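User
Please review the sequence:
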Amino acid sequence: MFKDQLFKDKVLDTRCRVTGDDLYHLKSCLESGNQEHAIEDVIIVNASVKIIKLYFDGIPIDISFNQIGGICAFNYLERIDEIIGKDHLFKKAILIIKAW
């Protein structure tokens, strides 16, 4: 029920999956790119939940793939933020709590 409410009027194609080959291609693009920001230590975790770990200007970042829960959480937080409004008060509060 929760998922149906979040994705009402939207089509979600869950057949689209990121493969190990896709991850290795993305890793080579990230490492060889000529960016103004430093991307370092790109590591692929090719498990059932595929993850790319990297450092972007010294900030550790983990990107997971093929996880419907992440999309649901993002959509939920966006909708709550729209309801509350007040210059993205909800998002700012979540970021402060996570940083704490």
